Amino acid sequence: KQYDAAGKQFQLALALEPDNPFSHYDLALALLYAGRDEEAAGQAEPARALLSNDRDAAFRMAEACLRTGHTNPGLAFVDSIEKQAALTAAQEFDLATLLNSKGLYPQTVARLRRVAEMNPTNWVNRYNLADALLEAGQSQEAVSLLESLAAELPRNGAVLSLLGSAYQNAGQPELALDHYRQAAAADPGNHDYYLDYARMLADLNRYDESEQFIESSLRQFGNDYALTIRLGALQMMQGKLEEARQTFRKAIDSNPEMALGHVALAQTYLRERRDADAARELAETRAKLPPDANVE
Q1: Which member of 32, 34, 212, 269 lies 3.0 to 4.6 Å from 274 by CB, making a disulfide possible if both were Cys?
Q2: How does pLDDT run across 33-67, given as a tens digit for each residue?
Q3: Which residues contact 154 (CB under 8 A, 6 or more apart)?
Q4: 86: which residues sit within 8 A by CB, 6+ positions away?
Q5: pTM for the whole thing?
């Protein structure tokens, strides 16, 4: 398992016989096992014939190609594997994760659709497929899939929240709002669902309702940084700048190490063209906290 040393020997062999496919194959394996994906991808084409007959190696090469942005060779290896035998559900999921990280959403959907077909009773697989469908812009299919899941799991906050997102993407804001509210009720310990509901109210220009909802949530949860920041943002959007400043200061007092509250406070000054106050707040933050892009 001295893969780096092995790789050097195979490179010497290739220098002697550049067209020897076995040396390309062995070098590809050594690089793959050493985790040197970019170099391994360079051996994809000259070692293709031999790799295609080695299912495990071909899958490793497919992953290496996809990780390093060599999408077409990676997908070609996947196709060659599937001509011999189907990928396992775990392999399909791993490929889907890689494809999704590269923004290849239609291909992600195809992989996750197969995972869902392999294990139709596992709701998580259908949930992942619906999430990928939303990323791929296929909102209507995502809505249908999530509606069936919500019927099976009426108290599942994750399903209800994603269904809210699907309705929102499909241009049905009231249904989206209702399902964000249901998600918060189903899982009251998850503050993200409260944030989704408050954001949707604000998107519908129902600022007062959104503000009241967050205030009641804060009374329920006590100190919560994200909810406090959202409340201040709502107040700022409505021109309640002094109230927003007080709210942001509460967030800063509770989490002084978080740059977001300081930046938000500076923004309230900028709204009133109090540039010197904004600059002072940011300069003090810059001096106290680690480097932060938003502060800059």
Answers
A1: 269
A2: 999 999 999 999 999 999 988 889 999 999 999 99
A3: 186
A4: none
A5: 0.80
